[in-house]
Write a structure and sequence with these properties.
This protein has about 270 residues and is mostly helical. The chain is built from ten helices and no strands.
Length: about 270
């Protein structure tokens, strides 16, 4: 009898140590999720899950060990129930159970689930046994298809978000070209002095210059003054005067000769 009690005590101590380690790991993982969620990485979460899984496997090995007595054969009977606060119980349970009264005993010493939960579990087991193999296989295929579609949508959204971020970060202008354009507009940097033919500026060889244009214009004005001093201008002369604006210098010489001929005809 004493040997069994010693084995039970040693097994309970080993279980308490394993549960304490598991509790510490769960507490650190929950703290990490609550305080470091913004910088938490998936490999770190997997490491925490791997640690918890290893500790649960160790706990199961302790329970299944040959030297561990069957705990199901052990009965826990509360010896004292009191509505007053128990400091020792509070310390051992870390403040979770301050009072060991009639209200908390059914919850903490229960070895089976609630009757409602147990009834629901039996109903689910019965429904699962009624489903045939073909129907179960179809439901499994439907569930797998839904999971595949969901994973595909999630992957598509991730790709679109990544491509959208790349488009936002992509540069849409060339700083070198922009600086060159600003320098050309503001300071004329890089612009050429070449001008196309026919524009104002130094006269090109073989073309009438600005002096010939001015000379023709002055001669035209003299002819107009002498022709209109004695009589009214003829319609032909007025038409020639209206056509002066915007004509090149080569046309002014022809107009001057036409006016001279008109004047000589009037004199005759």
């Amino acid at each position: 009898m004493q040997r069994e009690e010693k084995q039970l005590e040693a097994s309970v101590d080993a279980l308490l140590n394993q549960v304490a380690d598991l509790k510490s790991s769960l507490g650190s993982f929950i703290c990490k999720l609550e305080n470091e969620y913004d910088r938490l990485t998936w490999p770190s979460v997997l490491d925490s899950f791997a640690l918890l899984s290893g500790q649960l496997n160790t706990l199961n090995k302790v329970l299944k060990h040959e030297k561990t007595p069957l705990l199901r054969n052990q009965v826990i009977i509360p010896l004292v129930l009191s509505p007053d606060r128990d400091e020792e119980l509070t310390r051992q349970t870390e403040g979770r159970v301050p009072v060991f009264s009639h209200e908390v005993v059914p919850d903490h010493l229960r070895t089976k689930p609630d009757p409602e939960v147990e009834e629901q579990e039996k109903q689910l087991t019965t429904d699962a046994a009624r489903i045939g193999t073909d129907a179960a296989q179809k439901q499994i295929q439907t569930l797998n298809k839904m999971c595949s579609n969901l994973l595909e949508k999630i992957s598509k959204e991730e790709r679109e978000s990544e491509s959208g971020g790349l488009r936002q970060n992509k540069q849409t202008f060339n700083p070198t070209d922009t600086n060159a354009l600003v320098a050309a507009v503001a300071f004329g940097k890089g612009l050429s002095n070449w001008r196309p033919p026919g524009t104002s500026g130094p006269s090109q060889p073989g073309q009438p210059g600005a002096g010939a244009l001015l000379a023709g214009a002055s001669g035209m004005q003299q002819v107009q003054m002498t022709g209109t001093s004695s009589q009214q201008q003829s319609p032909l002369l007025s038409g020639v005067q209206m056509a002066q604006a915007g004509q090149p210098a080569c046309c002014l010489t022809t107009e001057s000769s036409l006016l001279t001929e008109t004047k000589s005809l009037k004199t005759v």
